[in-house]
């Protein structure tokens, strides 16, 4: 199994974190489509759209959030 160098850990974390968050949010938003039988299609579309938007947000916000956390914690 190949390993990604540690210097890219921030990017790997961002991809995983944004992917999980978007999957859950898209599933919640797609719940009304369950009765119609279109849940999976609506979820996949919402998931891909939101992940495309959220990944750059997480990549750019995470360093700032870590700095803020470092300032307000011991």
Automatic annotation (TrEMBL):
<dbReference type="Pfam" id="PF11391">
    <property type="entry name" value="DUF2798"/>
</dbReference>
<feature type="transmembrane region" description="Helical">
    <location>
        <begin position="12"/>
        <end position="34"/>
    </location>
</feature>
<keyword id="KW-1133">Transmembrane helix</keyword>
<keyword id="KW-0808">Transferase</keyword>
<dbReference type="InterPro" id="IPR021529">
    <property type="entry name" value="DUF2798"/>
</dbReference>
<feature type="transmembrane region" description="Helical">
    <location>
        <begin position="46"/>
        <end position="65"/>
    </location>
</feature>
<protein>
    <submittedName>
        <fullName>GNAT family acetyltransferase</fullName>
    </submittedName>
</protein>
<dbReference type="GO" id="GO:0016740">
    <property type="term" value="F:transferase activity"/>
</dbReference>
<keyword id="KW-0472">Membrane</keyword>
<keyword id="KW-0812">Transmembrane</keyword>
